[in-house]
Design a protein that fits this description.
Order of helices and strands: HHHHHHHHHHHHHHHHH
Number of strands: 0
Largest sheet: none
Strand content: under 5%
Structural class: mainly alpha
Low-confidence stretches: 1-22, 496-505
Length: 505
């Protein structure tokens, strides 16, 4: 009896420490996830409220000005937070990072005010005012990323998440109050500024550090070399994300830019919910493959795992985007109102585009595991150049033509991703396409049911919310039922990972 009582005290101290750290690690992860969800919900709610209050031209004006300002935000942030996390900087080195962050924030603020002044000279006073408001955001943003890096280094993820949740709440409250008071577009910018400033103040209270001016030439060159790689990738991603808004605003007007940006935001909300878990699960699945990727046996095992993962990803993701395309008219009417009806067609087209981009979620983890991640920047650059070129070429022909152009760009991106995944990751795309043939049949059955319920809803007194609820529920049941039937009679539709017998030697 005494031995049993004493056994817990006689455990290895390292094992006890591991047990104590694991709940804290899980709790920190949950806090981080909660902050991410709150941030997405706050931004989506602000977007929906603004879209219902503002006219499409006003919203397009906001989207156009924010596209200009976010480029300066990227330059102000510069990858300083990532440098802190990479180098675990402390003391004088940390002061130098803070000094560079302040300098970049001040420099970008000055550039922003110069742009604002130039716009006033060109009789674009309202756009100049918005850029001036945005310029107040650059310095807090450049410093905030340094504090975020410090909080991550110190393992204070819970505190970081609480700061983010509180800041998002303050920012959303200010945005709503501004919209209600009639400040229109300016209230969105002021809300983001309040959020960023709250993050900075909260981080300062927790970290209790402020940068003291200090900078050496050698350190400046080192951090700028690091920043060059981070910033180039972010600018490529930025150009791909905002080229549509800038091109349409320039060629067709701000109303069309507003429609397009609203459609991108709706589809983007779904993509963020699916994309991050997909990347995380891909990393988890691929890292389980032990040994060197150069080993033919391990490479074959990795390819088999990647093939099953890709098929499962298409089974889960494809019907979500196709379903979004089918219910987009009712969804846009509920979320944004009648005045945003042209957005529905754009949501449908961009949702189809996103289906073609699903395989891209797997590329980064797969190339990283096989030691071919150096090919990723060239891939991003090529895809970005193609997407930008197509939207510039298609924009003069209308907003829907621009959206179709992005579908072509996504198809080219799919071809490039498939080539890299097959050659350097062993992913069997022939097997994926064969299994996705069954997925295509199930999606056809789902689409027929969703369309039928939409027709019935239009012909009866069913409300929009009731109609879309019946469409989603019936479509999901039909899709999975069709998959289940085909798997039962044909097999191989739903991928099943091979489980090796661990007792074999």
């Amino acid at each position: 009896m005494n031995e049993r009582e004493e056994r817990p005290d006689s455990q290895n101290p390292q094992q006890k420490a591991r047990r104590m750290k694991m709940p804290a690690f899980v709790g920190a992860g949950l806090w981080t996830l909660s902050a991410k969800i709150v941030s997405q919900l706050a931004q989506l709610l602000a977007f929906l409220l603004a879209a219902r209050i503002l006219e499409s031209a006003q919203f397009g004006f906001y989207a156009y000005s924010s596209a200009i300002a976010i480029l300066l935000v990227l330059c102000a942030e510069g990858g300083w937070g990532e440098y802190v996390m990479k180098s675990h900087s402390t003391g004088r080195e940390l002061d130098q990072i803070g000094t560079i962050a302040v300098m970049s924030g001040v420099l970008c603020t000055g550039v922003g005010f110069l742009i604002s002044g130039a716009l006033h000279v060109w009789n674009e006073q309202w756009l100049g005012i918005l850029i001036a408001l945005y310029s107040c955001w650059f310095l807090p943003s450049s410093l905030s990323v340094v504090y975020d890096g410090l909080l991550v280094n110190r393992g204070q993820l819970k505190q970081q998440s609480i700061i983010r949740i509180v800041a998002e709440g303050f920012g959303l409250a200010v945005t709503i109050a501004g919209l209600d008071a009639g400040f229109h577009v300016a209230s969105l910018i002021i809300g983001r500024l309040v959020m960023q400033t709250t993050c900075l103040i909260g981080s300062f209270i927790v970290v209790r550090w402020y940068p003291r001016f200090h900078l050496t030439r050698a350190f400046l060159f080192d951090i700028l070399e690091f920043s060059r790689h981070i910033l180039s990738n972010r600018i490529i991603f930025y150009l791909r994300s905002y080229s549509g808004t800038l091109a349409l605003g320039s060629f067709l007007g701000l109303a069309e830019a507003g429609y397009y940006r609203a459609a991108e935001r709706i589809v983007g909300a779904i993509s963020e919910l699916l994309g991050e878990p997909a990347r995380m699960l891909a990393w988890t699945a691929f890292r389980k493959i032990k040994g060197q990727p150069a080993d033919p046996q391990k490479f074959e095992e990795l390819g088999r795992t990647a093939t099953h993962f890709m098929t499962a990803l298409m089974i889960v993701s494809a019907p979500v985007y196709i379903g979004l395309a089918l219910v987009s008219p009712a969804l846009v009417d509920i979320a944004l109102g009648d005045s945003w009806a042209p957005t529905a067609a754009l949501v449908s087209i961009l949702a189809i585009k996103q289906v073609l981009l699903i395989p891209g979620y797997v590329t980064e983890p797969l190339l990283s595991i096989t030691g071919n991640i150096a090919r990723m920047p060239r891939l991003m650059l090529l895809n970005g150049v193609v997407a930008i070129a197509l939207i510039i070429a298609a924009a003069p022909f209308g907003v829907e033509a621009a959206a179709f152009g992005q579908c072509i760009a996504a198809l080219i991106s799919l071809k490039i991703s498939a080539h890299l995944q097959g050659r350097y990751g062993g992913l069997d795309w022939k097997r994926v396409f064969r299994d996705c043939g069954y997925v295509f049949i199930a999606i056809l059955a789902m689409s027929a049911i969703v369309y039928a319920f939409g027709y019935i809803g239009e012909a009866t007194a069913m409300t929009r919310i009731e109609m879309i609820a019946f469409q989603v529920l019936s479509g999901a049941v039909t899709y999975f039922a069709a998959l289940g039937v085909m798997h039962r009679f044909h097999g191989g539709v739903v991928p099943i990972w091979e489980v090796k017998d661990q007792h074999k030697t």
